[in-house]
Amino acid sequence: MKTLQRAGLALAAPVLALVVAGIITSLVLVAAGDDPAAFWETMLAWPENRSLVNIINEASVLYLSGLAAAIGFRMNLFNIGVEGQYRVATFVAAYFAAQAFLPGYLNTVATILVAMLAGAAWAGIAALLRVTRGVSEVISTIMLNAIAVSLVAYLLRKVGSREGQTIVTDTVPQSGWIPGISLFRDSVTDMYGLVFLAVLAGIGFSVLLNRTRFGFDLRATGHSESAAVASGVDVKRMVIYSMLLSGAVAGLIGMPNLFGVSHNYGSTIQTGIGFAGIAVALLGRNHPLGIAAGALIFAYLSEQANPLGILAGISPEIIAVTQGVVVLCVVIAYEVVRRYRNKLEQRAVAEALEAPGPSKEVTA
Amino acid sequence: MTDTTTTAAAAVSVRGVGKRFPGVVANHDVTLEVRPGTVHALVGENGAGKSTLMKILYGVQKPDEGEILVGGETVHFSSPSDAIKHGIGMVFQHFQLADNLTVLENVVLGAEKLHGIGDAARTEIRRISDAYGFGLDPDELVEDLGVGERQRVEILKVLYRGAKIIILDEPTAVLVPQEVDALFENLRELKSQGNTLLFISHKLDEVRAIADDITVLRRGTTVTSVKPAEVTQHQLAELMVGEELPSPSTAESTVTDREVLEVRDLQVDDAQGRTVLSDINLTIHAGEVLGIAGVEGNGQTELVEAVVGMVRPTRGVVELSDQDVTSWGTRQRRESGVGYIPEDRHRHGLLLDAPLWENRILGHQTRKPSVKGGWVDKAGARIDAQRIVHEYDVRTPGIDTTARALSGGNQQKFIVGREMSGDPKLLIASHPTRGVDVGAQAAIWDHIREARRRGLAVLLISADLDELIGLSDSLKVILRGRIVADYDPQTVTPQQLGAAMTGAKTAGEEA
Amino acid sequence: MTVSAPESSAALVKPTAARSYRIWIYLAVLVIALSTTRIFTGADDITSSGTLRAAVIAAIPIALAGLGGLWSERAGVVNIGLEGMMILGTLGAGYFTYHYGVWVGLLGAAVFGAVGGALHALATVTFGVDHIVSGVAINIIALGVASFLAEALFTGLPGGGPTQSPSLDRPPTISVPGLSGWTESLEDKGWFLVSDLAALLNVVVSQLSLFTLVALVLIFGTGWLLWRTPFGLRLRSCGESPSAAETLGVNVYRYKFVAVTMSGALAGMGGAFLALVASSGYQNGQTGGRGYIGLAAMIFGNWRPTGLLTGSLIFGYTDAARLRSGGESVHALLLILSVALLAIAVWQLVRGARLAAVLAALVGGLGLTWYLRTDTIPGDFTQMTPYVMTLLVLALASQQLRMPAADGQRYRRGEAG
Fold this sequence. Notes:
The complex is a heterotrimer.
Chain A: H1 3-31, H2 36-44, H3 49-73, H4 82-99, H5 104-133, H6 137-159, E1 161-163, E2 166-168, H7 195-211, H8 213-223, H9 225-230, H10 235-252, H11 255-262, H12 273-283, H13 288-305, H14 308-312, H15 318-352
Chain B: E1 12-21, E2 24-34, E3 39-43, H1 50-57, E4 65-70, E5 73-75, H2 80-85, E6 88-91, H3 103-108, H4 112-115, H5 119-132, H6 147-160, E7 165-169, H7 177-192, E8 196-201, H8 204-210, E9 213-218, E10 221-226, H9 233-241, E11 259-269, E12 275-285, E13 289-293, H10 300-308, E14 315-320, E15 323-324, H11 330-335, E16 338-341, H12 345-349, H13 356-361, E17 371-372, E18 375-376, H14 378-391, H15 408-420, E19 426-430, H16 438-453, E20 457-462, H17 465-471, E21 474-479, E22 482-487, H18 494-502
Helix pairs in contact in B: 9-18, 14-15, 15-16
Chain C: H1 16-41, H2 49-74, H3 82-100, H4 102-126, H5 131-154, E1 173-174, H6 179-188, H7 194-205, E2 208-209, H8 210-228, H9 230-240, H10 242-247, H11 252-278, H12 290-300, H13 305-351, H14 354-373, H15 379-397
Antiparallel strand pairs in C: 1-2
């Protein structure tokens, strides 16, 4: 099949999903008595420089979250626990960084590694439960999310100190801070220095998946577990490696913010990134570039929706509806497109190989 | 051979029926008459067209030509419901039963209006069960039933819906001898109560024990119809298999005395604890093709899986080149030079939704040319995939085509090409030319012969006697999980093979 | 005369008769254990009628969610979206109760939940999307819809706000006169076993919410419907062997669709119970994972309504104990759990499952040590109780159970299963 045709089909689903989501959002707004026109005006306005920076920052964090989820999804392993893994990892990292065992940027690098280890360990619990007791990782990771919230809150109380309304860990030494990158002079916020972490992770993910044997095994197991087993794959081992890797990437989610802006872990840490990442992964069909696009789209939607209350009198919560509908529409659309594409391909193959003469096949 | 038409209206009459599929003629000019109140057996090899004919009779397929009469009336079935209305019921070879439901629930499903789902249904089921001696308890879980009992549930299902003509597709394929005896008791009882039975099988000893009439099908058409008393088992085997002797290879023997595969005292039990393979001993040398002949379902699949490493044997040893690999996993065995052409290419041989060049990597993830170190060598895989496509005449627009889009035959050719790459020491080929056209089949055989000349050892499982006799250096026959015969392909006759495969005994045969 | 064929060696517990005896025995052991623990630790609240009543109230939403999961999975569709459907239910209950009263509120909750269920059915049955993916997507949508609509519907109402509804009427409760008072006084005596049983009885005869009755009718009604009617047989066959069902003329798609939509309605009703009986109105985030806990209860109950109810009561009980007297009760529970785990370790050792025995002994031993070295459990840890319980239950139960054979499989018409 021609590449153009392939690309066209690949884009058809998300575009269709966005359009449908847009229509449904407008309908919901009308039902709630709000003005859809005002909604679209606010959403489609070109973002201010400050918003652009926010979008990039938000997208990079969402991207990491989407990658973490996608590693599992590629193997039909549903790691819904990205949220919990991210919390545990960020907390452990903040605490570790504040201890300053190492100087300057060495500390930063070490902290990132620690974050990945902590995220992996938290995900590993679910992996163990699945491999030894057959517990569905969907439920166990969701439970671990909730447990993480309480556990981290407890530990925070033990090691943190009060700062106004919140409790925070000790501040990371300044020598380890990653300076922001100023994209626009008139922007109040800077782009996270560690945005590049997201890019690196994306490249790593792509390389791992497409160019390593491990990645092949992972994708094969996702395609057809029986064929993978016949080809020599040890499924239990793959489950463990895959979950650990997924948790490790989840550990990275909090790093740009930790070293760029907040410099500690506080009880007001951003929540919901884990779930948004799952949505983004689904939107991007678990593909490194697709996830990037998805992350940008979601970040754009969230950021543009902020002033909805002031500018249009609409609750910004509506954007959560849009995002959710996009996800559902896109997964349905992907399924439909997939089946259509299979049919097209079979037809193309039959046409390209007009069987010459009566070739009698041996009946099985 | 005598004609079996009688003056009374036949229960089922098939006249000149034909059915074609793309590239395959499954049936042509099939004619048979089933007398009412008899057991009529339809025999033939795998691929002779029996299943297609039965599907036509049950309304799952429509015939392209010819006509079918039930009780003297011409009928046209467009779905199984039509067949059921005419009193035809079919017991499929692969049972359609829900394990976690009871016998009662499985039987009444879809027919709840007949007797409800409570005590009335229970009573009716018991009545049928007692009338024919099935011994089934309506409230027992199907999961707890043995294979013979499950089959009786399937028979009960059709009787419950009022069938008088019952088609049984290879009913004894999955039964052990005692279960076969039990089934035949039931069938005789059914017959004595006026039912008509159409019995498809290739097990000639059983067929002669139960049938009143036998029709032989070969290559899609009826050869003849006989009565069991009029024909010996050998004659039947001969009719089934045909008189053509495939020309055995006259080339020099390439068999060395270096052992590549040795299997000792192998026993494999299934998940329920039944022994499906026992006392298996075999040795294959470099440059030797060992053919295992046997009707499907006699343990070949388990033998293959045990050698490949997908199944752990209950007892026994597997050795590759004098190394004990019994505890090795599949990957390790493949890495040490084992190629595997699986029987079920969709489940075990291909990633259907991946392009062809990625499928080149499957099974060979740790070796060149697909993989260098831990890295996938995309270029290497693509080049080699192209080579395979060329050498094995795989009809595809390109190596980026999804595997699913290729026809079954081309998929198979690609798999064969892949497994023969990388100089394997041992090739396990399970039905390697299934669904492949004759020209490509010959080409694959040539590739195997060439590799054999270079020292490849091959374990060949096949239901195609031409293939077995043409390729093998030594031939064993597997029946009900045991090796029952050993032959020299150069001297064996089709009758001997057919007889051994089906459990008959020939007078004075060489073991 | 028939020759009996060799028996299948898969010897399994015959469901019906033998099983119900075992359940009574387990219950008796449990009651005795609890009573003993109460006397031993002095934590009187663990078997008080207040706690038991709170346990029932905490259990019912979980049970209804689990019942929804049961309907769906019995037809072969995994429903992770129960949490979202429950959220929609809480919203529906909040809105409709405020304007039209509790019974319309219940109905509205069911309808809202059913909409979520229908969406899931559309995605999985009609379009063949992976069940888990669809469920996750539904959860995301439901969260968004609920927070948006809550703000739109409740802001400006007296007592309401963007994240909560005004205080709502409660459904009526009933009490049996005479028995109600008698059981109370018996309970107060504090006698071993007798008082505990009295407390149990008190829950049923005093201040029993009508919604609880509705829930129980739904639970036992499901048992009757699915196991004793043709409709139920066909529905279950779709989850056990859709291809067999198809060959027998069952419209598999239709039954799956109905089952999944119903599962949404039930989860929605669970939400209504949560909002109206367990709380005093709609609150953002009040479901707190109960949709998932309901699934765990369903698994624990082996996909049967009575087992599901038992599982929910266990979860409800631990939640209630924690809420009422926090640290002290959970501390006492820790003792029971640790002892139970050690008992399991011994049992596994006898069966020869050494790894499992070691793991159980390890966790049980840790728990026991923790119990002995502390007086109470800190607040953060008691918060975790329902979730840790879920993990424990799943880890212990998962392997012995039997889910519907075709559960979770993508089913397309015409494909051999």
